[in-house]
Specification:
Structural class: alpha+beta
Organism: Frischella japonica
InterPro entries: RlaP (IPR018775)
Protein name: Nucleotidyltransferase domain-containing protein
Number of strands: 8
Helix content: 40-55%
Order of helices and strands: HEHEHEEHHEHHEEHHHEHH
Low-confidence stretches: none
Largest sheet: 5 strands, mixed
Distance between the termini: 32 Å
Pfam family, one: RlaP
Oligomer: single chain
């Protein structure tokens, strides 16, 4: 599958006359809890030739493709990516720390990651992750929930907790996030991760009462504490400089 993905990246560069700076895995495979039927969620950041940015019409800011049985492929133009980093959007924050990388310009990817740290807005990130966790938790029937949905509650909830307690960008992988769990739950969640690797993503699972209590209490605590964190706003100077420098380097 990796060979197919890398071949597809090469085809996209040729077909759309773009240069892909960074391509990674972004879904459950990168998060650390894939299922046997998990597809490949490949995300990439690309640039157009310099003259495209100097034209009257703006070049395409994103590329999306139909999802097949295995591959979900989407990409953002570098300018769009930088605009989202300025807004402290969690998506580029996650992409740029993916443990599964299919292609990259290491120098540019490293600079992008450094920019992410500068544009981290704890309040916005916490609300984002908390919203995902709350929405996913609604998709349960009492203590029954799809095993995939359970991790769509746990991972963002722990990400919100990380941002709140450490005032840092949350890790993409669930493994460091598990350090935020009470010791009594750590092994239970690891066991569920192991179980998920053997089950289809839609398979139902019963949430243990102590796990559900942790989830619900954490949501209450985080919702209360985030209100005391100030919203941050950023100017684009560092991003403008990086964008121009990158285009001139690659022209």
């Amino acid at each position: 599958m990796e060979r197919r993905i890398k071949q597809k990246i090469t085809e996209l560069e040729q077909q759309y006359h773009i240069h892909i700076l960074y391509a990674c895995e972004s879904g459950s495979r990168a998060w650390g809890f894939p299922s046997p039927n998990s597809d490949y969620d490949v995300r990439f950041i690309y640039v157009h030739p310099l003259d495209k940015y100097l034209a009257i019409d703006n070049p395409s800011s994103h590329l999306t493709f139909p999802v097949d049985d295995e591959l979900d492929l989407q990409g953002w133009d570098l300018k769009k990516t930088l605009q989202l980093i300025r807004k402290s959007n969690t998506t580029p924050f996650e992409w740029l720390q993916s443990p599964i990388i299919y292609q990259q310009n290491e120098a540019i990817a490293g600079q992008l990651w450094q920019l992410c740290a500068h544009f981290f807005n704890a309040r916005g990130n916490i609300y984002h992750y908390l919203g995902i966790a709350k929405s996913a938790l609604q998709n349960r029937d009492g203590q029954q929930i799809g095993i995939k949905k359970l991790f769509y509650v746990l991972r963002p909830l722990l990400c919100a907790k990380w941002c709140l307690e450490k005032r840092q960008i949350a890790p993409m992988s669930i493994i460091p996030l598990l350090t935020l769990l009470p010791d009594s739950l750590h092994q239970q969640i690891n066991d569920i991760i192991t179980l998920k690797a053997t089950m289809v993503e839609s398979a139902p699972i019963t949430i243990a009462p102590e796990i559900l209590l942790f989830i619900e209490q954490s949501m209450i605590d985080i919702s209360e504490q985030v209100q005391s964190i100030c919203e941050q706003h950023f100017n684009a100077d560092k991003l403008d400089q990086f964008f121009r420098q990158t285009l001139m380097t690659l022209k």
